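Quick check before the chapter quiz. The format below is the same one you will see on the exam, so make sure you can read both the input and the output lines.
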Amino acid sequence: MRPVLLRLAACGLAVIGCARSAAAQVPILRGSQAYEIGTPQFRDWSGFYAGGQVSMPTTGVNFTGGVSSLIANILRVTTVENEFSPSGWASLPKQDVARKSYGGFIGYNVQFGETILGIEANYNHTSVRVSAGDSIARQVTTSDGYLNQVSISGTSNMDLTDYGTLRARAAWIYNSFIPYAFAAVAVGYGSVERSASVSISGSDADPACVGPPDVCLPPYAFSAAESEGKQHVFAYGWALGLGADWAVLPNVFLRGEYEYLTFPKFDGVNLSINSVRLGAGFKF
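Here is the expected output.
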């Protein structure tokens, strides 16, 4: 019996030693919990915000056709206009000017994780006054037998003082930045002045015709001028742009953006504005 008991005791000691070794290899910390992946946290950009901005935009003004309606009115129901359309001869050149502007913005953001959708009203005050002029003279023979000497001149002035946009924005959160893109409807305010003058003289187209009026066509001369000034003119257009807001404090951000804005019909004038802006805002 003694050898059997000794064998049983040896086996028991071996089992206890293996158990202690396994326990030593896998330590158990009381009160510990398994690691779980949490929900990503993003900076809160939701809610109302407002701010101010400055820029030095380049304004392109295309006056093509700016005085055609005035010339057409002067030459209405005339053979020269019906056959040769002098109202379309004057071509006022395009002008590009750079003038500073300043203004403000106010908007509202709705945040979905790292995506932001919002609406923003943006206003700018500026002082853009652009002028252009053109003159042209031609000799035309009309079907009534007259040789006509036609001289036309015209000028146009455009003064833009205020413009603004109502934007729909989409943005994405990247650390402390939110790059964004926007599309907008635009409205502009200013004044337009135009003037035109026409001078025409005619004689018999046959150079060999020298005689009394009952044989040759009698000579004639005609001149007239017309002007038009419109104050408080509103124009409508659209705008597209890109930008980024940078949170420098929990409720304060800086802004940089590019905007292209156009007014296709500013009372006979086509106008476009390219702007690079800097601004600062506060999130409520």
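If your answer matched, good. The chain has one domain: 45-283.
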